[in-house]
Specification:
Strand 1 and strand 2 form a beta hairpin. It contains 6 helices and 2 strands; from the N terminus they run H-E-E-H-H-H-H-H. It is 63% helix and 7% strand. With 181 residues, it is mainly alpha-helical. A two-stranded antiparallel sheet has the order 1-2. Helix 1 runs parallel beside helix 3, helix 2 packs antiparallel against helix 3 and helix 2 runs antiparallel to helix 4.
Length: 181
Amino acid sequence: MHFPAWRWADLKRPLPLLAAITGLAVSAPVSVTVSCNVHEIGHVLVGVPLGWRVERINWCLLSEGSVEYSHIGTSPGNLEGYAGGIIAAAFLVTVYFLLFAAHQRPLLGPGWWAAGLGVVLWVGPQIVFGITEGAVGPERSYVDFIDNNPAVYAPLIVGSAVAGAVAHAWLWRVLFTPRPG
């Protein structure tokens, strides 16, 4: 087991703090954009075998993505709706483990730790989006549903992101911190 090459107190110095801010500032927007596109691809991967005909995929760049269908096929339990968020969350977890956890990079410095945080932050919200989209069904917009229920969804989305951050902090600062004695 390796132990951190840095401590929380290091963030009081400008360079480690800048490294942490940069790691988060780069990885968070990249993670949300890539996971949004994987979310849309997840709909297609599950929808096409169920008889859905894809007319167009609107990629996530500066706005939300979507998939336009010319025909909506069968949807047992609206599996196509659930698939986007669940596949995107699984993708983020895989990236997190392959790029960060498997090599214990967050132990190397605050920049790596913050970059891992930027990836894992979006796992919970993608799960919330996937469950909501599946529950709402293809006839309605899950984004409108979330917008019309902010008292329910704001805490769910923020809480799920915070849960990812807490899990990340626990894994790298509690599990790998040497204990006295």
